[in-house]
Predict the structure.
Amino acid sequence: MKRRIKTESGFTLLELLISLALVAVLVTACLMAVRLATASREAGFQKIDLHQRLRVIHERLHSTLRST
């Protein structure tokens, strides 16, 4: 009986599953980073808006107190 020499190249099912799991973990990590960055950006915009409103109120109070 002759032995066949394995000359076919390729990936095993286990290697494909492991690589797929690693890609899924990396994609999940990237999506979480994007979500965190978006939430941080929104919080920054809210702080900027608050500071602008407080500045307007301060200017109005200052001008009102100066005119009295």
